[in-house]
Design brief:
The structure holds 2 protein chains of 2 kinds. By secondary structure, chain A is an alpha+beta fold. Helix content of chain A is about 35%, strand content about 20%. Chain A is globular, with a radius of gyration of 24 Å. In chain B, helix 4 (about 40-55) packs across helix 6. Chain B is globular and about 80 Å long. The chains are: A alpha+beta, B mainly alpha.
Chain lengths: ~375, ~350
Amino acid sequence: MDKKTAAFLKKKFKEYYYKYIEQIEVPPRIEEREFGYMTFDRIMIRHLSFQNSGDMQALILKESPNSVYYSTSFYEKPSQPMHEKGWKGGDLAFDIDADTLSSPCRKDHDKWICRICGVQKVGIKPKKCPSCKGTRIHEVNIACGTCLDAAKNEAIKLQDILINDFGIQKTNIDIFFSGSMGYHLSITNSDFAGANQAVRSDIVDYVSGQAFIPESLGVSRKSNYENMIDRFPSKSEKGWRGRIARYFKAQQNSEEPLDAPAILIEIYRKAGYRKFRLAIEEAAKKSGATVDPSVTTDIHRILRLPGTLHGKTGLLKKRCRNLESFSPLEDAVAFGHDPIKILVDHSPKFSLMGEQFGPFKSEGIELPMMAAIYLLGQDMATVDE
Amino acid sequence: MITIDLGEEDLAKYPFLDEAGEYIKARDLNLVDISQPDFNRVIGRARKRVLQAIRSREVSGEIDKPEIEILSFPIALMLVKATNLEHLVSRYSYAEAIRVEKLLEDEREDLIVEIFRNILKINVILVTSETGFSKLNYKIPIIDYLRRATRFHELQWKLINRIVDEGYVYLKSHELIRLIRQEIEDKIRDRLKEMVVPQLPQSFIKTIQELSTLSPPPPKLSDRMKITPDKYPPCVKAALDLLKKGENLPHYGRFLLTTYLVNIGDSVDEIMSLYSRSPDFNERITKYQVEHIAGLRGGRVKYTCPSCRTLITHSFCFKTKECNEIRNPLQFGRKMNLGSKRKGNKKWTKKQQHS
C-alpha cells in the first residue's frame, strides 16, 4: 500500500472512531486482557493493557489503527512478555473463515499473482505457476455473499453443537461477523475458561467432526450383522450418533424410504468395514462445523476487537444478535455514500448495501466511500488526489 | 467428607480417604507400638504390598482383615519412602492405583459417586436411561471428562466418540473408573513426596534394605543414536517432502518439523539449511523462529514436539502401521510399548473388547 493511500485510510478510520467510539465493545475483564494493534504501515504492536474502557478508547482514537486486537485469554500481567504474563484462563473462541470453505464461486472472484514472473489470473491459486513453475504465489481473495453465506452456515452448525451437546446457553455465545471473511464465536463465562490446549483441541475435533470412528456406532472390524441394527443410531439420538444418522437419512434418495439404521446397514453390507469407515468419516466432517483449529487451541491468540474496523475492508467486526437474519455486507458496513475518485488496479464484482460494483480493471472511477475503502484496504486500488 | 456411612471394609479398600486417617488417628499408635510382635501381621502385609508392587505392578485387594489392611497402608508408604528410591515411589503409587481401580469396578454406585464428588471434586450423576446402544450408568460434566480423557491416546476416548448431551458425557462404570486411575496414583505419589520418615526402629531397617535390593532400577536409556532421516516418523517425512519439492509447508507442518528436529538434537544451522529451499524463505525471520523454538530466545523454553492428537486436529497426521500407537512423533521407532507391559492396561483392553 502506498503512503498516500495509507494516510487516507488512517484519516477515514479516525473520523469514524471519533463519531462511533462508544460502539466499540469492552471485553469483560478488560484489565486482564492483552491488547494489540496493527498500523497502516503494517507494524504490529502487542502486549498492551488497559485498566478501563476509557484508556482503550483513547488509544484507538489516537492511533486509528488498521486493526485492533484483544486476547481471548486473561492474564495476571497482560502487558509483560508472553512467558511472564501468567495465564489465568481464556474464552473458548472459534473462527470460521470463508477462505477455508471451497465455495464454487471462488473461482470467479479469487485471484492470484505469481511473485516470480508476475503472471496474474482470476481463479483458485494453483500450487505452481503454470507459466514459470514457481511456487511463490500471492493470493487475493474477497468473500462474496455466497462465500459469507457458506461461512454463516458453518456458524449455525457450530452454534447448534454448542447449545445441544455442550449445554451452553444461546445467550452466552457471542457471535460476530469478523469484518472480512467469516465469523467469530466466543464463550466467555463457562466451565471451559481454564481448559488447556489438549482439551481445546479435543473440543475442536468434536465440533468439526474429526476422528469419529465406526465403533461409536457399534461396529468394529469383527462385527457381524446380528444385532447391528439395534446398535445403529436413530435420527433422534443425541450427539454425534444422531448427527450421523440424520446425515445419511438426508442423503437418501431411494423411492422406498428407510430409517437411519437400515440405511447404515445397507452401506455396511455394500462397503465392508474399511469403506464404511471412510463413509462415516466423510459424513462426520460434513456434519461438523469447519473451524480454524489454531484459533481455538492457541491460548495466546489475539482476535479482532468487536466494534472496530477491519483494515482490509473497512467493514466492522459486528455482533450478530440474530445470526440467521444477519447480512454482513449490509449490517457491517461502516462508511457511507460520499463519492470519492480512486484508481482501481483490478477488482472482481462485489456488493455492499445491496449495490453492485465492478468488475474494474485499471481505471479511475468515482465510488461511494464504503466501496472505495473496501478496495483501497485490499490493495486493489490507490487514492487519486 | 463422605456423607454416607463407611464401614471398616470400605476404609480397607480406600485407605487414602480422610476417614481412614481418622480411624488410624483414633488408635493413637506410635512407632514403639507398631514394633511390637502384635503388629507383625500388619508389618507383613505392608511389606507384601510393596513386594507386590515391585513384582507384579499391582497390589492385591485383601479386605477380609480390614484392620490389617487399613493400618498396613501408611506403613507401606513409610517403607517405600524410607528406601529413598524415586522409581519405587512411582511404581508403588501405580500399583496401589490399580488395586483401587479394580475394587471400584465392583463397588456400589452410591459410594462411587461419593468418592468422585468428595475426593476428586467431580460431579458424577447416576443415570438410569439407556443412551446409545449400551447401558451407561453415569454422566459427568464435559470439562471434567476432557481434563482426564485427553491423557489417553486411543480414539475411543475422544469426546466425539462418546455420548454427549447438554454438557454431560455419559459413561459406563469401568470407563468412569479408568478415567481417574492417574489421579489416585498422583494422590498416593503426592502423599509419599510430602511424607517425612521418622527415625525407624531396627526391625524396619532389614525390610527396607530387602525392598531396596529387590526393586529393579528403571531401564537405562541407551545413549541416543543420531536419528537419521529414514527413521523419521511419517508426519515429519511428509513435512520434509513438501520442503524438498519447494512447496509451501503449512504453518503447523513447520512447527512440527522444527520442534521435532530441535528435540532430536539437530542444530539451528542444520534446521535453517532445510528451510532455505522454501519458496518464501526469509533468513532473518526463520532464524528468529527456529531459535525461539529451540529455547535460545524469548522465554528460553525449548518447545516440545506437538502430540499425535494435536497433529490430527491440525490435519497433519500421516499415520502408518509403524506408528504403533505412539502419542508423540518423538516416540516413533523407539517406543517399547509401555502400555501393554502394564498389567492393568492389558486387562483393561480385554475388558473393553468384551463390553
